Amino acid sequence: VLFFFLTLSNFLVRRVIIPLFPAIKAALGLSDMELGFLGGAVNLTIPIFVFPVALLIDKYGRKNIISAMAAVWTTCSMLGSIVTGFWPLFFTRLGLGVGEAGYGPGSNAVIADYFPKSKRSTAMGIMNAGSSFGVVLGLLLGGMISQRWGWEKALLLVALPGILLTVLTFFIKEKRNNLPGSGAAPAKIPMDKFLKKMFTTPTLLLIYAGTSLFVLFVASVNTWNTTLFVRVHKIPLQQAVLYASGILVISGISGLYGGVVVDFFRKRIKSAPLLLTSFFMLWSGIFYAVGFFVAPQSQQLVFIIIATATISCFSGPIYAALLELSPARAKATATSLIIIIQNILGLALGPILTGFLSDKFGLEHAIGVMGCIGIFAALLIFAASFTFVKDLETSECL
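The structure corresponding to this sequence follows.
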């Protein structure tokens, strides 16, 4: 539960700036490009800092660094409320990414320490569902607070819960019982062998590729859905934001039950974390592709809702499978690799690629192409399910 709210806080302070763009533009006289840099600053620093911070987590422990990272993103969001120009605000957003870089690997490692394989997908699904709810709250609270008290107060107020969460994190009792041996502190990681293992294990390579492509698809549709409703369906902006927020709520809920379903079948099917995840991905990709290439325009919203019913089901099971395949003393480090790849190839590239395709072929066709990418991602994860059990046998060989 604590990590659900930490994840929610993480994405709340990250996304709250999006509805503040008009007010910030007017107050600071910024260009649209400068606003774009403010929105994407987090994704610039996460790939840079996530790997070195993960090494510290695996070497020195989880809770202290997780708590420090929460303090960093909370402080940076609060500092953003008192700056007076583009560059100071930009640097606070970069700092936000530094804090978030260490949280992902650390939180996944703690979940892996606390929960057995039979419950791990459910636990990670619950934690990761906080991201969708955080995005929704960021969009809604950002607009509401900005209209009443100004954009500065929005950055300040959404950060305040992070203070309590930072303190509570200190009371986590660390468990390192999954380490080989009698629970001694982890030995130094031989980095060359670790990287070789990560990039020569067939299942891990397929997970990296498939998950990154699916994140590209998800990030693209989440970014462009509001514009689609306004531009193509002529829905008023405020109503379009509500529609997009509702879709994100459905996405968050799907993250909750996806892990439960996988853990239920895991008792019978060892490859369930990847096999069922591929079906979830395939469902979402097909309905987006069909909805935008085949179905009438009037039915697109229905297809989006149906596709969203499974669009976040992958998050818990994929990370659970990744951690099973990773050596116990390097779980945070292993998680950092997929976060780097997802941020560069998925979160950063997806919306840009969709915009490029939209300029060339129209927004509807661009989103349809993203659905096809989702289908291809599902096929990669399906292929990974056939090598998963075999690669588990060598997961601790480092």
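The CA atoms of residues 265 and 272 lie 6 Å apart.
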